[in-house]
Amino acid sequence: MIRYTSLGAKLWATAVWVIVGFFVLNLLAMIATVVVNSFATRWLGTWLPAAFTTRWYASAWDEFQLLDVLIVTMEVVGAVVLLSGLLGVPAAYAMARREFPGKQLVMLLILLPLLVPPITFGIPLATVLYKAGAAGTIWGVILANLVPTVPFVILIMIPFIQQIDPRVEAAARVFGAGTLRMFIHVLVPLLAPGILAALLLVLVRTIAMFELTFLTAGPTSQTLVVALYYAVFAAGVRAGQSIDAMAVVYMVTTLLWLLIALRFVNPTQIVTRAKREAH
Amino acid sequence: MRSEAGVLISGQVPLRVRLAQRGLDGVTLLVLPAVLFIVGLFIYPFVYGLVLSFEPKEGGWLANYAKFFADPYLYTTIGKTLWLAVPVTVLNVLVSIPIALRVRLMRRQRLLTTILVVPITLGTVLVAEGLLNYLGPRGWLNRVILTIGFSDSPVRLIHNYWGVFMSLVITGFPFTFLLTLSYITGIDPSLEQAGAMLGARARQRFREIMLPLLFPGLVITFCLSFVQAFSVFPSAVLLGAPAGDTRVISIAAYQAAFEDYDYSMASAIAMIMAFVQVLIVAALLGLQNAFYRGPAGGGKG
C-alpha cells in the first residue's frame, strides 16, 4: 500500500474529500427539503416551516388518485419483472453455454437498447405502439419497459451462468432430464441468487423509468414517476406540499426496493453491468 | 456433440448433428424469444422511424430534415443540448478521476457508493422536484448564500441553464464516478507500487502508469455519460427554460410528436438526435485509436 505523507499529498486528499462531502451534503439537503416541505403547514422564507402537519399526505392521496397510480405501477413493474425474467434468463443461458455463428451480432443486438438512451428510441417506439393501438394501454407501457430490461437481465445473468459447472447439467442430462426439466430442477435453484439480484434491479429501474412510460402511457396507465412529472409540470395548480407528499411516497417506494436490492448486489453493479460485457 | 463428430465425420451426417457441431441446437434456440423481442420492439421501430422520417406530411422526401435545418427554433436545439451536455460531462469525468483514485484506497467504499446510487435510482424527475425547492429563491441554498452575505438578493438558479446543469451533475456525477471507480479498481495495484518503488512521484505515477491504463475506460465512461446528458428531458422541462436556453433536442422531438402530432417530423428529430450521439461517440473512439496505442486492459481487469 502506498502511503501519502507529504504536505501536498495531504492537502490534495483533503480537497478531494471536501468535494465529495460538498456533493453528498447538497444531495441530502435536496432530499431533506422535499421531505420537510411535505410535512410543512407554511414555509416561506425561513429555515424551517412554521408548523408541521401530515394532512398533505391525505390530500395528495385523493388529489392524485395515488391508490390507482400505485396499483398501475405495481402491475407494470410486476409484469415487466416476470416477463424480462422469462425472456432474459433462457437467452442468457444460450449465450453463456453455446458458441454459434452470429453470436457477436446477437451480443450487439442485446447491448444496443442499453446504450441508446430511452428518449431516442422511445419516440419511434411510441409511434409504432400508437399505430398498433397498444400505446395508452398498460400493455403498451409494459412492452416499452421491457425493451431495456430484457437485455439488462441477459447481461447480468451471463456471468452467473458461466460460473456454474457444466458437469452439473451434463449429469442431469445423463439422468434423462430434458432442457425444460433441467431448467426447473437444476438451473433455477442454482441460479436463484443471480435471478433474484437481476430481477430486483429490474424492479428498481422500472419504478424509476420515466421516459419510456411517459411516451407510451395514457391517462389510466401512468406509473408513479409519470404522475409525479405531471404534478410538477402543472405546479401552481396544487399546493407544493401536496406534490412533495407524492414525491415522498415515490421516494419511499423506490428506496425501499433499492435497500432490498442492495442486500443482494453491490451498488456499482447498478451502473457497470452493461459496460463489463461491452468488450 | 464432440465424440459423435469423430464417428460420423465420413458417413452421412444428419442435419441435426451438423447443426449441433456449429453450436446450433435446442439450447441455442433459447436465445430466439429475446432476439425476436428486441428485433420487434427496438430494431423495427428504429427502421420504421427512419423510413417515416422520409415520408413527411408535405413536401419531398427530405422535407423534414430541410425544415429542421432551416428553422432556428429547431436547429438551435442541437447547439443548446451540446452546450449543456459537453461541459457537464467534462466536469463529471474530470472530478471523478481524482476522487475515484482516492476512494479506491478506502476500505469501506460501500457507504459512499450506496449514497451515490440514490440519485441515480431516484431519477431525474425527483431530482428536478427536489432542486426546484432546494435551489429556489426561498430554498436552503439561497438562505445560506444570503446568510453568508455572498449576495444581497437570492441568486436565480432555477428555470434557467444552471438549474438543468446542476440536475445533470446530481444524477450524472454518481454515474460517471461509479463507472470510473470500476475501471480504476480493475487496474492491478502492484503496477503502481512498482512505479513507487522505482522512485516515481505521485504525479509521475499518475501520468506514466495510471492514466495510460485508465484511458480506454475513461473514453467509454465519457461516451456513456455524454449520451445520457445529451438525452436530458424531464429536468430541462421542469428546471430549465424549455422555450429558451434549455430547449434541448428531446423537447423538440417530444413537441413534434405529442403536441403537433407530426410523427414523421418527430421521427426525423429522433434520428438527428441519434446521429449526433453516434457522431460524437465515433469521433471520441476514433481519437482514442489515433492517439493511444497499447494494451487495452490494465492487468487483472
List the helices and strands and how they pair.
The complex is a heterodimer of chains A (279) and B (301).
Chain A: H1 7-38, H2 55-63, H3 66-97, H4 103-115, H5 118-131, H6 138-162, H7 166-174, H8 179-208, H9 211-216, H10 224-233, H11 240-262, H12 269-276
Helix pairs in contact in A: 1-11, 2-11, 3-6, 3-8, 4-6, 6-8, 7-8, 8-11, 10-11
Chain B: H1 3-8, H2 15-21, H3 32-53, H4 63-70, H5 72-103, H6 110-134, H7 140-148, H8 161-185, H9 189-197, H10 202-230, H11 234-238, H12 249-258, H13 263-291
GO biological process, one term (chain A): transmembrane transport
Domain ABC transmembrane type-1 (chain A): 70-261
Membrane topology (chain A): Multi-pass membrane protein
Structural class of chain A: mainly alpha
Overall spatial form of chain B: globular
- Number-wise, the strands of chain A total 0
How many H/I helical runs of chain A? 12
Radius of gyration of chain A: 23 Å
How many domain regions of chain B?
Answer: 2
Termini of chain A, distance in Å?
30 Å
The percentage helix of chain B is over 70%
CATH topology of the largest domain in chain A: MetI-like fold
CATH class of the largest domain in chain B: Mainly Alpha
Q: Largest protein interface?
A: A-B, 97 and 97 residues
Q: Compute the number of helices of chain B.
A: 13
Low-confidence stretches of chain A: 274-279
Largest sheet report of chain B: none
Q: What kind of oligomer do you see?
A: heterodimer
Percent of residues in helices of chain A comes to over 70%
Uncertain parts of chain B: 1-8, 296-301
* Helix and strand sequence of chain A: HHHHHHHHHHHH
- Let me know the largest β-sheet of chain A: none
Provide the CATH topology of the largest domain in chain B: MetI-like fold
Secondary structure: number of strands of chain B: 0
Describe it:
The complex is a heterodimer of chains A (279) and B (301). With 279 residues, chain A is mostly helical. Chain A has 2 domains: 47 residues, no CATH class; 221 residues, MetI-like fold (Orthogonal Bundle), CATH 1.10.3720. Chain A is globular, with a radius of gyration of 23 Å. Chain A contains 12 helices and no strands. The C terminus of chain A is likely disordered. Chain B is mostly helical and 301 residues long. Chain B folds into 2 domains: 53 residues, no CATH class; 216 residues, Orthogonal Bundle (MetI-like fold), CATH 1.10.3720.10. In chain B, 72% of the residues lie in helices and 0% in strands. In chain B, helix 12 packs antiparallel against helix 13. The radius of gyration of chain B is 25 Å and the shape is globular. Chain B starts with a helix and ends in a 10-residue tail after the last helix. The N terminus and C terminus of chain B are likely disordered. At the A-B interface, helix 1, helix 3, helix 4, helix 5 and helix 6 of A face helix 3, helix 5, helix 6, helix 7 and helix 8 of B. Chain A: This is ABC transporter permease subunit.
